[in-house]
Design brief:
homodimer; about 450 residues; alpha/beta; Aminopeptidase; Glucose Oxidase, domain 1; 15 helices; 16 strands; about 35% helix; elongated
């Protein structure tokens, strides 16, 4: 009960209506420092212009590509301009998969060729010429698993699983439908399918296909697989509903190549009191190979850079060492994340906390926390300081793929920055994830939120 | 202290981290009914398609225009299709001001004509041909008031007051800068100015001018006045900073005409227990005469219609009478709002509560409340029911211009629906406020939030 009461009293400050009654002593140095952080980011923030440069002058940057290499040196160059104590390129071998020439797909419908919009899934093999086969539709992977082999053999499986519109959080939809893209092609191959098409994981009603990685279980033959745009999925569904047999012809040119050397890019301000304890904020520098990778995850990269810039601009001397970590290869391998955790362990770098921003550059909602409940309780106690800045939602939950491997190193406090997610999957992994979809103020509010959290952790470690 | 404790315990439920521990009995009928409302809106909502129709087939609709009249019958037609108990066209006389042909403005700079993007402010007179005069820049209305008359006389006053980037809420910026547009031209005229240009009230860095209404104090000669795009404002500022005299030539064709007959459009479901007590939700049907009036306030109109549609679809029998009220002439006169309150008083219609949506169709944040503190406390007690739906921010504050006049009728509880406001003033009163700027899910979440609040008021009046 005592705990409940303490929480209750803390939570009194959660709602603006009470803030006018907040005792003066709560508005401490911390609240003034956080206000300074927001002033600096909102008035002088560079994140948006950095993102413009990354998106328009480098563009998308899948692991192993020339543009990913450019992005590494772009990030290093920005970090070197910030007057940091260290800038590190951390070598890591990454997968190298290429889409090749644009895909082609159509249904031959009498004399008409009905085109379909699709993008090969990451790790898909090519069709080696034109693949033509009859299509069979399933609602999800479970239905596919239950089908007898003879219904699937020699066919292209179409997994037509729409996002559930009733969910409030779009990440719930993604979590629910993820298996279609990640495991569908492998399951289809196990039943003898020659190809697999997955309806895009999105609420958007347009026809941009949303790619993403897939994979095949050990011993399973990889088959050509692709994401189908929403409108194309509805079109294909209608054709199948006509009762006639439907065949698709498709050409995918994608191919895997030998691994390549790439880098995580790390910028560091050394701590004044505990330089061997680290607080890091990060996003991933690689993207899918369409659009600009603006929300996913150019936004998280520039927000992490902006955190360091802001502390330098304010002349803040952190007690712990602070890092922005731009991870390589989140999208199709997670090699950068694994390498970072491995090196941290090897070098006995104690990580106090890691914050990941990989949910887009949208207007702020809050933070998730995991892996260290003392840190979670500390976060709850900071609500009165964060809540005036549109940060209302603080829940225990997954933080992010790139900081996840740090769990193996101990009770590192992991935080996920959580902006509003309504529009995230409109653009996620699609050609529509472009710079113009990012709003400067929304991006900046995220940078400031992350910087404020780094500040609070630095000042009040649990 | 007891009150504090009760609030504290209520607020325990405000933060998701605790919801897993919420006792079962809290998840009452209300929570199930609200879930049904969200299911209906998110799965079957018509608001987005109605908005598409309004924006693309009728377009902008300033009071007194042909398109405003079309919008009245468009709304009536939708209401009649919903099987309501009553659909009312409430006559009201409205101002009729027309922009006329597009404005022209430029600075003659040596041999070069440097064009400026501007839109006449509502109520501005025309320039009656080309007005050419020297420009003088001021930072705000206060600076203008302090200038000696001889510095202003015969000149065009340029009020170059940018939004303060450091504010977290963009409505704070609007409140701070509003005086420039509303009072600047009148103050300029008092000092003998022949025209007035006001930097657009926006954070956007583009060159869309943002119009809006102005007015002149009694006895003050109206002078031509216009909003200048942000880029044009920066350009003009630079020219003035060169030290040379800067003259602007501008042509405004706008003109005021005699008042016209128009209508508020009201749809009603009669209450089963207290039919003479009303709960209303509304937005305004008129817009400025550029763009589509999509966020301002097509969104609020279709959300109010969606509230009625949803209750009909769910077969919900309200205890009180429910109305959607689409007000006419919010933008340049508020005549519809004044008429509605006047008629309500005359007809002894007791208004229990009014909810206004006039802050755009963006992702939800919460509700403001005013004019009835019992209702405010009731709202606070409903937080646990609303918070799972991205509604976190409940503060005492202004609700909206159209329901404001109801205050004169008694302690009517007034609520303002508050979506996220970061992008609102990017589009507000500008040609960029078009249908494509509205996201279906964000719009629908707003409709459902309003419907849920109407439901709670209907079930649990204070």
């Amino acid at each position: 009960m005592r705990k409940v009461l303490i929480f209750s009293i803390l939570l009194m400050f959660c709602t603006d209506v009470f803030s006018q009654n907040t005792p003066a002593h709560v508005f401490t140095k911390d609240s003034l420092e956080i206000r300074k952080i927001y002033d600096e980011v909102l008035k002088n923030g560079q994140g948006y212009e950095w993102l413009r440069d990354l998106c328009l002058n480098i563009g998308h940057r899948i692991s192993g590509s020339e543009s990913a290499e450019k992005a590494v040196f772009w990030a290093k160059n920005i970090m070197e301009g910030l007057g940091l104590d260290r800038v590190i390129l951390q070598p890591v071998m990454v997968p190298h998969w290429e889409r090749g020439a644009p895909e082609i797909a159509y249904v031959q419908w009498g004399k008409e060729k009905i085109p379909l919009e699709l993008l090969a899934l990451g790790s898909s093999p090519s069709t080696q010429g034109t693949l033509t086969a009859e299509v069979i539709e399933v609602a999800d992977v479970e239905e596919l698993k239950l089908l007898p082999r003879e219904k699937v053999e020699g066919k292209i499986v179409f997994i037509n699983m729409p996002f559930n519109k009733a969910h409030i959080h779009t990440f719930t939809c993604y979590g629910e439908n993820y298996s279609a893209r990640r495991f569908g092609p492998s399951e289809a191959s196990k039943k003898g399918a020659v190809g697999c098409l997955v309806r895009s994981l999105t609420h958007a009603g347009d026809d941009f296909p949303h790619t993403g990685n897939t994979g095949f279980d050990a011993g399973v033959t990889p088959i050509p697989c692709a994401a189908l745009g929403t409108a194309s999925s509805l079109k294909l569904h209608d054709l199948l509903n006509s009762g006639k047999k439907v065949s698709i012809s498709m050409v995918l040119h994608c191919q895997s190549y030998p691994e390549k050397l790439s880098y995580n890019v790390i910028g560091e301000i050394r701590g004044s009191e505990k330089p061997d304890e680290y607080i890091i904020a990060g996003g991933h520098l690689d993207s899918w190979d369409v659009g600009h990778g603006a929300h996913d995850d150019g936004a998280g990269c520039v927000q992490s850079l902006e955190m360091l810039r802001t502390f330098k601009a304010l002349g803040y001397k952190p007690r712990h060492s602070l890092r922005a970590v731009l991870f390589m290869n989140e999208e199709n391998g997670l090699r950068g994340a694994l390498k970072y955790a491995e090196e941290a362990k090897k070098n006995k770098e104690v990580h106090l906390a890691a914050i990941e921003s990989d949910a887009g550059g949208f207007t702020p909602r809050g933070f998730t926390f995991e892996n260290n409940m003392k840190a979670g309780r500390a976060l709850m106690s900071w609500i009165p300081l964060l809540e005036p800045y549109l940060l209302h939602r603080f829940i225990e939950g997954g933080s992010g793929a790139d900081i996840g491997p740090l769990k193996a190193n101990g009770p590192v406090a992991l935080f996920g920055y959580r902006p509003d997610d309504q529009r995230y999957f409109d653009y996620h992994h699609a050609a529509s994830d472009t710079f113009d979809k990012v709003n400067k103020r929304e991006l900046d509010l995220g940078s400031a939120a992350i910087t404020a959290l780094v500040y609070l952790i630095d000042q009040h470690p649990w």
